[in-house]
Design a protein that fits this description.
Acyl_CoA_acyltransferase; ornithine-acyl [acyl carrier protein] N-acyltransferase activity; globular; two-stranded antiparallel ribbon; EC 2.3.2.30; Ornithine_N-alpha-AT; alpha+beta; about 250 residues; about 25% strand; Aminopeptidase
């Protein structure tokens, strides 16, 4: 009888070596692959993408157990205590999140989510989200929020997916972040919106939010350092459907 050997593990970074591995993966994806400059503390010689928020955050790591425990995915998480230490949430550099801050809900910010190129299009992102779901449940988080990016800075080239988000997935007024330098998103009239094409052009991370009932803030933000258009995603964990909890809350290899 064969025994299933899990491929992946998800855990929080426990030491400087773990953090360095996450920052190295971020450098590979955000700087080398996507051509961005990276955060303010990025070390191009060492090949590590970093900023001032890293030291006040936790870093969730996706580990490939069959590849020498290599870090092949990561996302950065910050709670209110971390934001207090840092002086703000990272999202506040681009979006007004005062509706979230005044909600008295338990908040968790996600950021710098990325996967090694070899692990996209399969179960790796799902496994990373499963690990995140465990963390959310353990800490009784009410609201997840954070930036998610479209590659490129031309909003017209992204008119279909941006319009779809704005028309079909706008956050409720009481929980709606707003871009500090709004790039309009509602660029295509409802009758001309091709929702299938829009979803095909939507990044996997944003689609993961949407599958769980996530909503989007008002306006995008042009992030010149990372050469992308950012949207702010908000997910009320109380709205998770039973199916979503089954998909994202289970343990899989």
């Amino acid at each position: 009888m064969s025994r299933h050997i899990p491929r992946f593990a998800v855990r929080l970074a426990a030491n400087e070596a773990d953090l360095a591995a996450a920052q190295a993966l971020r450098f590979q994806v955000f700087v080398q692959e996507l051509g961005g400059a990276g955060g303010s503390l990025t070390d191009h010689l060492a090949g590590q993408e970093a900023d001032a928020f890293d030291r006040h955050s936790e870093h969730l790591l996706l580990i490939d157990l069959l590849r020498g425990d290599a870090v092949v995915g990561t996302t950065r998480v910050m709670d209110r205590a971390g934001a207090d230490r840092a002086g703000r949430f990272a999202t506040e550099d681009e979006f007004d999140i005062s509706p979230l801050l005044s909600s008295a809900r338990r908040l968790m910010e996600l950021g710098r989510t990325c996967l090694h190129p070899d692990y996209r299009g399969g179960g790796a992102l799902l496994r990373l989200w499963q690990g995140l779901a465990g963390l959310v449940e353990e800490r009784k988080i009410d609201l997840i929020f954070g930036l998610a990016s479209f590659t490129g800075t031309d909003a017209q080239a992204l008119a279909q997916p941006l319009s779809c988000l704005s028309q079909d997935h706008l956050a409720d007024e009481g929980l709606r972040p707003r871009s500090l330098r709004p790039v309009p998103m509602d660029l295509v009239p409802p009758g001309a919106l091709d929702r299938r094409a829009a979803m095909l052009a939507t990044p996997a991370l944003i689609k993961a939010y949407l599958r769980l009932g996530g909503k989007v803030g008002e306006g995008a933000f042009l992030d010149s350092a990372f050469r992308c258009l950012d949207v702010c995603m908000v997910l009320d964990t109380a709205t998770l459907s039973a199916r979503a909890r089954t998909i994202y809350g289970g343990e899989r290899g």
